[in-house]
Amino acid sequence: MTTVSIIIPTLNEEKALPRTLRQIRQLFPAPVEVIVVDGGSTDRTIQLLRAQQLNMPLLKIQHSQVACRAAQMNQGATAATGNILCFLHADTTLPDDGLAVMQQTLADPHTAAGGFISLMRGPMRTRWLTSFHNYVKSYYAPLLFRPHLFFFKGARLLFGDQVIFCRRAQFLACGGYTDDLPIMEEADLLLKLVRFGRIRQVNRVVESSDRRVEKWGFWRANAIFLYVGFLWGVGYSPEKLRRLYADIR
């Protein structure tokens, strides 16, 4: 039987986390476990999680020694028991059949990993243009920067808000996320996983918070998204890129 472990890295996510956990309770089939790895939150994230455990016996809380999403997700993956790992951001929600979509996608042995189409939205608006650009970027970015992988391996460049999922065995075999990578950790992982098969962007939608666009504004946010992606593609240092991409909560 194929089971799915959901892994959520958190750091001061008291605003976004309650909605995400409510959505997880609606999933069918349900995950075998939900592992939240906290990077040292100073808000009410941990209190909220402990309260949620009363209604979610499958919810497990872990504490990371570092506030680095890549390291947090590796820690969760090591503890996971599911055949499939689903890496979910705290501000992103899945459709109620999202885990079935993952199982069906990975039933194809030629597919190594996948992600969804991310629809970026806030309480009162949907960011259609930004969402559309993020969709097409998943195709043109590998075509520009890794054309040999795009044409011959089926590479796609997916991001965390698209909910990356893969087989646990292949995740461990490729070494997982690079622990100290501060940004673009998903792209780095997918370049490792593509040796096992193609990367698929499935034709289903997940919803992600527009908090960066709300904070930075449309033009600045999209300029930063483009700039960071381009510099990563040409080999710019991830440590330097991190300075351009501040955390927004």
From TrEMBL:
Glycosyltransferase 2-like domain: residues covered: 5-162
Chain ranges passing through the membrane: 216-234
Keyword entries, A-Z: Cell membrane, Glycosyltransferase, Membrane, Transferase, Transmembrane, Transmembrane helix
Broad class of the protein's primary localization: membrane
Coiled-coil stretches noted in the UniProt entry, renumbered to this chain: none
Cell compartment(s), UniProt: Cell membrane
UniProt entry tagged with the keyword Acyltransferase: no
InterPro entries for this protein: Glyco_trans_2-like, Nucleotide-diphossugar_trans, Trfase_2_rSAM/seldom_assoc
Name the UniProt record assigns to this protein: TIGR04283 family arsenosugar biosynthesis glycosyltransferase
